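DUF4843 domain-containing protein: structure tokens wanted.
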Amino acid sequence: MKIYRNLILVLVVLMTSCEKSGDLFFDKEQTDINIWLGSSTIPQDSVSFNFSHMLPGRDSLIFHYRLLSYPLDHDVDFELEAIDGDIDLVYFSFGKYTIKAGEYQGRFPIYFDKPEVYNEFKDKAGKLRFRLKAGGAIKTGIKELSTLTVILQNGISKPDQWDVAPLYYGPLWRYFGTYSLTKHSLLIQQSGRTDFRVITMNNAVTQEDTEALSVAEAIAIVDKCKKWLLEYKAQNNGEPYRDENENEVIFP
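Answer:
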């Protein structure tokens, strides 16, 4: 993760220096591009897409791009392609990816379709890897930011940020304690949400993550769960609510 953060920071500094000084660090017609998953400034090695978190139909996963040059004076299109993984087990499609004149960075979706009955990846996670499709006007940029790896799931599984979280986010164990499937199900039941991320510092990086929780919201969910656990215990002759390992479900 550290190398990805450093790469992005270097690019930001270079672009800023270019804009301020007017020096031509880049060829104005250069069309190399970086693509990545994660936030706009912090790439992740891979991200999860969980089919159990969506109803039958279509959902999307967002990726980011950045030209390694000045903004172009004309529109330019690019395409993605799947290169390996469980390609034949997933219904996915791409949108029309057009970088408008004057723009050099942004975000686009990859679409995933879920049939009415879909049982793939329930017992074992899958994977898909995408890259820039060769042959177009846009060329691949830095090697480390040239592919998109998606981990495919279809059931309740430990969230990516439970043990370790990226910069500006808090690990979920800090708010929810030890992980278990039973506790995870209770969190979904009491919060009405399936995606859990907690922002610890508001800034330009996290502003675009409108689905993440604040620390106060995470604590409010914990309070609801604690209340439910007390009610359960009272209704079951003092017997606590237990997880799949017969451990009592507790929160910090």
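Residues 12-24 have pLDDT under 50 and may be disordered. The helical segments are 2-21, 173-176, 181-191, 204-207, 215-235.

Cheers.
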